[in-house]
Amino acid sequence: MWLIRVLALAALVAAVPPEGKKAVEKKAASGEKKLSERANALADRSTNLAFNIYHAVAKDKSVENILVSPVVLASSLGLVSLGGKAATASQAKTLLSAEKLSDDYLHGGLAELLSDVSNSTARNVTWRLGSRLYGPSSISFADDFVKNSKKHYNYEHSKINFRDKRSALKSINEWASQTTDGKLPEVTKDVEKTDGALIVNAMFFKPHWDERFHHKMVDNRGFMVTRSYTVGVPMMHRTGLYKYYDDEAEKLQIVEMPLAHKLSSMIFIMPNHVEPLERLEKLLTREQLKTWLSKLKKRAVAISLPKVSLEVSHDLQKHLAELGLTEAVDKTKADLSKISGKKDLYLASVFHAAALEWDTEGNPFDGDIYGREEMRNPKLFYADHPFIFLIKDNKTDSILFIGRLVRPKGDKMRDEL
Ligand SMILES: *[C@@H]1O[C@H](CO)[C@@H](O)[C@H](O)[C@H]1NC(C)=O
Ligand SMILES: *[C@@H]1O[C@H](CO)[C@@H](O)[C@H](O)[C@H]1NC(C)=O
Ligand SMILES: *[C@@H]1O[C@H](CO)[C@@H](O)[C@H](O)[C@H]1NC(C)=O
After folding, report:
1. Is the pLDDT reported for residue 192 higher than 60?
2. Nearest ligand, CA of residue 32?
3. 260 band by pLDDT with thresholds 50, 70 and 90
């Protein structure tokens, strides 16, 4: 008798298709792979940088949409500290709250963090990322620097001749476009200071929702940039169980949407009504985010999101200077001699350019939930006016992206009234 049961059990085990088993094991492995202490330490530091850089950029009144990847920016600061000496290097570490960390710990930790969070295979999201350091044509890059910046931060190096500015700009933009599969056609129309080094990060990120939107439930709606200016955008809709919080005192809503494999999630923070985002931005700190997240409760939420692509390019050079990176950007003071062997270089621009595509794609989900009691009376989260968003890593709590959507692409709609 027991023999038959053992045999039956063996047959059952054998019946599990090898692909299915492998997929499950792989998923578990990527989710459970623990990061080292130093990678976790740098994840934590990069989160402070996220809020600091967001506020610095938001202060600039000419900026509408914002899109920054703090972990990528952290790696660019790692690069500055790798190539710098004296205060040029130590200020980059200070921006990362890493003054007390050894260089090996810093570079190793950032490298591990970046390669883990940007691993598209393990994370089931699309994240194309290219980083390049451009130097004037007179420069010769030091071998050690080229080797280490490639190893830790996947940086490429290139000389650029700005005497022919048009073709120089063209080659930067073409490289960015290639790096992002054409999703980011342009990093910049112009470069003001052509006598220094340029850092360029070019990215394309596309979240793969843990539960997809129905691709047919997309229609045209208005997005109110301001009370009196509305643009037409395609809007996608879905109702599901999400972590949600209605902050009645601050008149805002927060919803967290997991991305595939639940390794990261997108968090939306939106005022109840159309208003400039300054009021919310004053509230936005690391501590406040933690408080809000602790109040989220899983419940039925009907979500409507613009199905748009957001392309934003920031020159973060002056914002980094505001945060304390004053030496590297100053031609008379910068010491980036580990890059070139000479004290002949300063940081003229830090282009941080990204495209983020909100689409319906994601994993299939269990349709049976729609019959359930808990799906009745969903809260409405209707994102038809400016909001703040973050993409947070579930494993390290680091912030992969932080930004705001103020003005989506779209044509002005006729005022109703
Ligand atoms: C990305 O993740 C996959 C699956 O977990 C793994 O096999 C691969 O080595 C990782 N790649 C990098 C660059 O870490
Ligand atoms: C995510 O996973 C699904 C199925 O597991 C697959 O079809 C899709 O191509 C993956 N997407 C990315 C960006 O890896
Ligand atoms: C984070 O991961 C845990 C464990 O896998 C999971 O239970 C949780 O739902 C995830 N959170 C999000 C927001 O995806």
Report:
1. yes
2. 3
3. confident
- Tell me, what's the pLDDT at 33? 76
Atom nearest to 206 CA in ligand 2:
13
pLDDT of residue 31: 52
36 lines ligand 1 (CB under 6 A): no
Structure-block tokens of residue 318? 């002056």
Select from 123, 262, 296 the residue to mutate for testing ligand 3; criterion: most ligand atoms less than 8 Å from CB.
262
- State the Cα–Cα distance between residues 373 and 300, nearest whole angstrom: 10
Find residue 232's DSSP bridge partners. 222
Per-residue confidence band for 416, with pLDDT thresholds at 50, 70 and 90:
low
Regarding the beta carbon of 72 and ligand 2, being less than 6 Å apart is answered no
- H or E element in which residue 304 lies: strand 297-306
139 falls in which pLDDT band (50, 70, 90)? very high
Residues 6+ apart with CB under 8 A from 40: 109, 396
Ligand 1 atom 2 nearest Cα: 122
Say which amino acid occupies 34: K
Tell me the chain's radius of gyration from C-alpha atoms: 23
Given a contact cutoff of 8 angstroms between Cβ atoms, the answer to whether 255 and 272 are in contact is no
